[in-house]
Amino acid sequence: MSEQLLQVKNLVVNVEDTEILHGIDLEINRGETHVLMGPNGAGKSTLGYALMGSPRYQLTNGQIWFKGQDITEESTDKRAKAGLFLSFQNPLEVPGITLGNFLRNALEQRTGQRIRPWEFRKELKKAMDVLQMDHSYADRDLNVGFSGGEKKKAEILQLLMLKPDLAILDETDSGLDVDAVRTVSKGIEEYQKSSKGSLLIITHSTKILEALHVDYTHIMVEGHIVKTADASLIDEVNENGFAKYE
């Protein structure tokens, strides 16, 4: 029997005074890959931010359980240390801290242990090679002057280095050309193999999914999950769109 990793019960989420999510139920077991699809404005990204504990997203009802612990009231940093990870649609630029230093600090916070510099550099270069990233990016300020594709690769680099228990990937493929999507997809596949972590992939495009085994697909419309099925639902959406669910 698979170990339950995430359980979301009747989650209601407001942004300012507007209710965006209306009673979401979701369960993800260890090692599973779930895909969340839906039309623009359905609330998909809101769910990702709410799971990560962003203060802008107010939970007015429901519970979030992660690895057997109720994290509904926990802060974002505690959720991250517990093994939750969220990649952003539009990663922020952070002047004054290099990508390498950021990753080393995050890894030490995640593990609670000091990491030898040479060991860290070895693992970092190996992960960068998977993503076909120039090693010099490790010494550049985080995302500063990076192209859109480079920022997305830097997000997946974090995924490979931190090895979270559950990674929420929010439109990681948006704005990427075909080659970049293929490279990012390879990085996600490597994460699955090396960490046996779970994934919640929020996406409009299915190109990023082609090399991945998908266990469950969810359709969200107007703040409700209206259908859950296996990977065959992806093909149905590609063929017919979301019109039948709206």
Walk me through the structure.
The mean pLDDT is 92. The protein is an alpha/beta fold. The longest helix is centred in the last third of the chain and has 18 residues, at 178-195. Strand 4 (57-66) and strand 5 (69-70) form a beta hairpin. The strands form 3 sheets. A 6-stranded mixed β-sheet has the order 6-9-10-3-11-12, sandwiched between helices. The protein has a 4-stranded antiparallel β-sheet with strand order 2-1-4-5. The protein contains 7 helices and 12 strands. It has helices at 44-52, 76-82, 99-111, 117-130, 148-162, 178-195, 232-240, and strands at residues 4-15, 18-29, 33-37, 57-66, 69-70, 84-87, 94-98, 141-142, 166-170, 198-202, 216-221, 224-229. The protein starts with a strand and ends in a 6-residue tail after the last helix.
Blueprint of the fold:
Elements: E1 4-15, E2 18-29, E3 33-37, H1 44-52, E4 57-66, E5 69-70, H2 76-82, E6 84-87, E7 94-98, H3 99-111, H4 117-130, E8 141-142, H5 148-162, E9 166-170, H6 178-195, E10 198-202, E11 216-221, E12 224-229, H7 232-240
Helix pairs in contact: 3-5, 5-6
Our measurement of the CA-to-CA distance between the termini, rounded to an integer number of angstroms, reads 35 Å
Put simply, the count of helices is 7
Strand content: 25-35%
- The averaged pLDDT comes out at 92
The percentage helix is 25-40%
Number of β-strand runs: 12
Low-pLDDT parts are none
